[in-house]
Amino acid sequence: MTSEFTAEEWDRINAVFAADPAKYGFPKRIYGSALLASFNIRKLGKRSKRSANTWKFLAMLCRQFDLLAVQEIMDDLEGFDYLRELMGPDFHAVVSDRTGVFPGESGMGERLGFIYNTRVIERGDVVSDISFDRSKLIKTVIDNYDVLRDELLPYLKYLDKHKAWQQNQVGAEPKPPKVQIPVFLSFIRQPFCASFRIVGHPGTEPYKLMAINAHLYFGESVTDRRQEFDALMEWILGRVEEKDTAYYPNFVLMGDLNLDFDNPKTDRERITAHIKTFNAQVKTSDSRANVYFPFLDPHPVHNQLFRTNARLKETFDHVAFFSHDGRLPQSIQQDMMGAQERGPDYGMVNFVQLFSDALNDQPLLELTSAEKAVFYRKFEHEVSDHMPIWVRLPLPDAFLHD
Predict the structure, then answer these.
(1) pLDDT tens-place string over residues 66-86
(2) 192 CB neighbour count, 10 Å cutoff
(3) What pLDDT sits at residue 244?
(4) φ, ψ for residue 236, nearest 5 deg
(5) H or E element: which one contains 2?
(6) Which end of the chain is more exposed for a tag (fewer CB within 10 A), N or C?
(7) At what angle do helices 351-359 and 369-377 cross, to 10 degrees?
(8) DSSP states of 133-173 as a string?
(9) Separation between Cα atoms, residue 204 and residue 209, nearest integer Å
(10) In terms of DSSP bridges, do strands 33-44 and 67-73 run parallel, antiparallel, or are they unpaired?
């Protein structure tokens, strides 16, 4: 088992980073702008699970953001609370209860949390999870009864066999078959939603956002992954169109969506085309909301597609806007992202490249598979296996009606 970074290695990492933080995508603090970010911090639980140097590094990254969505917070909040404490007194938090496992049953449940800078961000009154209600579930089951029955039939036969085995105890215990639910019924982890206002200069109208923090399904079934994503899109798009009754009419999605980029070149094209149909859907209504996923496209200044997992193969993590407010980033602005100092802009903090530059004698791409395996083991559990992504917004400086 490879050990964590030594104190001497951390000194090298911190020195390389301090020399040129922009090289690794670390966004500057720029007056008149706010930074929104998402960061899946792997199994963020007990404080003792990470070294003091790792906690300092994580706090340094997270402190740069004004509204941060964190995924994979464990039921034990000690580490999450310690991270927020290290970030400083201006940072407050709101966090969900554990989701993904029923109380008293085995499994790894997670919390979803937001950390926000009270100098820039105000929290609204609405905080909630996102789920499909009972009537929606019943209708789905009825509409898809035949396919559900066919899929569940092998499991029902297994239950009969297992009951008989329990009575007779003859032969090997029957093993349950895998069940692949062909339609969406519920989220593996319920997304978490909280309301925020991003405050600008005095006398200006703040951005009013419902922020959704999501950690969608990751597993063997690509179908399940697509079902969860489409179900979340259905919920958000439906709520966005209820502009007159929603607490805030604008939504920002921040999280690990686990979109299935098994082949990033071909999958990205397919997923991008699918997501870009959402604008056509909402624009057929009177609400005229805009849907924008900036991380699907190459950054126009850096000409770079961001791969957000530590192994630089997938774009799992996203910040996306569903907005009526024309001041928020729009899909038509993609080619102008990064053109103005105050934003809008977007990027990723590539700490993997930082670690490689500080500790490896040769470029990461030139390492052998065995060398890469040793390198990744150094930090994937100790730091994370995802990297932070961010979006910069210019603070409100002119009144604009929703």
Answers:
(1) 999 999 999 999 999 999 999
(2) 26
(3) 86
(4) -65, -45
(5) none
(6) N
(7) 110
(8) -HHHHHHHHHHTHHHHHHHHHHHHHHHHHHHHHHHH--SSP
(9) 16
(10) parallel
pTM for the structure as a whole: 0.92
Cα-based distances in Å from 281 to 103, 151, 241, 249, 286: 39, 31, 10, 17, 11
Helix, strand and coil in the chain, % to nearest 5: 35, 20, 45
Mean pLDDT to the nearest integer, 354-370 = 93
CB 62 within 8 A of CB 93: no
| Sequence-distant (≥ 6) Cβ neighbours of residue 166 within 8 angstroms | none
Residue ranges covered by each domain of the chain: 7-129+191-394
- Between strands 67-73 and 91-95, the pairing is unpaired
Class of domain 7-129+191-394: alpha beta
Question: Per this entry, what is the length of the chain?
Answer: 402
Could you report the per-residue pLDDT of 237-287, keeping only the tens digit for each? 989 988 889 899 999 999 999 987 666 667 778 888 888 788 776 665 555
According to DSSP, the β-strands at 111-117 and 121-129 are unpaired
Q: How far is CA 88 from the centre of its chain?
A: 23
Q: Look at residues 304, 212, 305, 194 and name the one whose alpha carbon lies nearest to residue 256.
A: 212
Q: Average model confidence (pLDDT) for the chain?
A: 91
The DSSP secondary-structure symbol of 381 reads T
| pLDDT over threshold 80, residue 126 | yes
In sign, the C-alpha dihedral spanning 214, 47, 123, 132 is: positive
What pLDDT sits at residue 401? 43
Whole-number Cα distances in Å, 307 to 311, 312, 313, 350, 389: 8, 5, 6, 9, 10
- pLDDT tier at 294, thresholds 50, 70, 90: very high
